[in-house]
Amino acid sequence: MELCLFLLVLNFDCFLCGLALGVAGIRVSRPAACLVAGCSALFFGVSLLMGEALLVLLPLDFLHEIGLGLLLLLIVVWLLKFCGGKSADSVGKFWRRPENLDSNTDKKLSGGEAVLLALALGVDSLGGGLAFGLLGEKPLFWTLLAAVITFVLLFSANKLGLLLQNLRQQ
User: Fold this and answer.
1) 37-73 b/e with 16+ CB inside 10 Å = b?
2) What is the count of structural domains for the chain?
3) Where is mean pLDDT largest: 9-23, 47-61, 88-102, 128-142?
4) Which among 11, 72, 102, 134 could bridge 67 via Cys, Cβ 3.0 to 4.6 Å?
5) Residue 3 domain-assigned?
6) Which of 4-18, 92-106, 127-141 has the lowest mean pLDDT?
7) Mind spelling out the 3-state secondary structure of 52-89?
8) What's the domain range around 151?
């Protein structure tokens, strides 16, 4: 259960980006959300497999402690990133100024724009996947769950943001 909650926290930036895009009137289609979720899951899965490979090379107890430390560090970094002052990272600039992501100003996330968002959001997945791998978790299950959580958070938050934007305009 704790790892499921961690996945939710790890992907909370997807929720914020989806909400920010929606409030700015930018629509995230299902295919665009699937692309973002797929890229995020790819980063997560590859780094999870790298962590799993380290389990073969180094002592198990040592790696479990590193994995738990990495999870704690990711949570602290996440809190500082979103609760702190101005962020210079790519995810922070997208959810603070979502119109920057809509490069063709058509108010819809295109494939190229979705890839850019996926790369920005996928960076957190690298550390999370490595931590899950170091804990010896099952790669396929957690990678699929990460993809589902990313999709649901991004797509539903975007719909909520669009609804809020429509209510504000009335």
Assistant:
1) bbbbbbbbbbbbeebbebbeeeeeeebeebbeebbee
2) 1
3) 9-23
4) 134
5) no
6) 92-106
7) HHHHHHCCHHHHHHHHHHHHHHHHHHHHHHHHCCCCCC
8) 13-165
Asked, for residue 63, whether it belongs to a domain, the answer is: yes
Tell whether pTM > 0.90: no
Q: What angle do CA 1, 125, 8 make, to 5 degrees?
A: 35
- Could you tell me which residue, 94 or 138, shows the higher pLDDT? 138
The number of beta carbons lying within 10 Å of the beta carbon of residue 150 is 30
Please check whether residue 145 is in contact with residue 6, taking contact to mean a CB–CB distance below 8 angstroms.
no
Q: How far apart are CA 102 and CA 109, in angstroms?
A: 6
Which tokens is 95 given? Answer: 């959810």
Does residue 93 fall inside a structural domain? Answer: yes
Q: In the predicted model, is pLDDT for residue 35 greater than 70? A: yes
